[in-house]
Amino acid sequence: MTAPLPEQAEFAPYFRSHQVRFGQDEALMRQIYQLRFQIYCQERGFLSADNYPDGLESDQYDASAAHFCTFNLKDELVGYVRLVHPSGSQTFPFQSHCTSLLEGVTLPPSSQSAEVSRLIVHHDYRRRRGDTLGGFNLESSSAAPDHEMRSQSPQILLSLYRQIYAFSRTNGIRYWYAAMERNLARILTQLDFDFRPIGLLIDYYGPVTPYLADLYETEAKVGKRQPELLAWMQRPEPMETK
Asked: Which pLDDT band holds residue 1 (cuts at 50, 70, 90)?
């Protein structure tokens, strides 16, 4: 008799993520722009709402980015991130704010790099003091009761990272830039996603530090310390659209 296969670990059972086809999924992109407006303009005041009279926040990087969103079991949009891979003479978004690098830092080839940008989670999943825009909190616990909505926010982030990881592996992207809060960087490090700082603290939609991650190094570290997590990352949900 054949032994049953071991059950595969599931790190985001309450959410599903998809890539969004920019220029095609117009209705979904509109929802995304509305969510970005709510968070960046109305909630945080990083951008002036007066500049977006239609209530839709977008910028010049959207056309050169891959877009991803997450839905809960009620089919509600609860998270979003984009992966910016500039073309032509464009620079990465963080470079318009970070004008100098730490001593000894050498940037990798642009053709193999992308910036993790506009990472956001719906307000309903960020109810604790200290929650980052990505939904993580240093005091959060994956063992919190399932009925607590706030306990699911780490799953949203992991679900989104799973998608950008799959996209990166398919499209020859080895390096990720990210301008993020130090708390988020610390939590990602705890998960063995190593982002190293490449610049000083800057005001870039709040106080953030520019970081760089090498996906080859991340794969090696996660594979050694958390093989189930790497296996889950490498068997992504189908990159279908909603």
From this structure: very low
Amino acid at 181: E
**Cα–Cα distance list, 20 to 28, 65, 189 (Å):** 8, 10, 28
Please state, in angstroms and rounded to a whole number, the distance separating the CA atoms of residues 81 and 188: 16
Total count of residues recorded for the chain: 242
Could you give the angle at which helices 215-225 and 153-170 cross, rounded to 10 degrees? 130
8 Å CB contact between 229 and 222:
yes
- Helices and strands in the chain: count of H runs, count of E runs: 5, 8
- DSSP SS3 for 93: helix
Please classify residue 169 by burial: count the beta carbons closer than 10 Å to its beta carbon, then call 0-12 exposed, 13-18 middle and 19+ buried: middle
Structural domain spans, the chain: 15-233
> Rounded to whole angstroms, how far apart are CA atoms 48 and 88?
29
The encoded tokens of residue 53 equal: 């009279």
Residues facing residue 202 across a β-bridge? 208
Q: What is the pTM of this model?
A: 0.86
CB 170 within 8 A of CB 122: no
CA proximity to 155, closest of 143, 169, 165: 143
Considering the domain delimited by 15-233, tell me its CATH architecture. Answer: 3-Layer(aba) Sandwich (3.40)
pLDDT for 160-188, tens place per residue? 999 999 999 999 999 999 999 988 898 89
Dig out the tokens for 159 from the structure.
């679900």
CA-CA distance, 214 to 11, in Å (whole number)?
A: 22
Residue with tokens 């509109």, as numbered in its chain: 30
d(CA 169, CA 149): 31
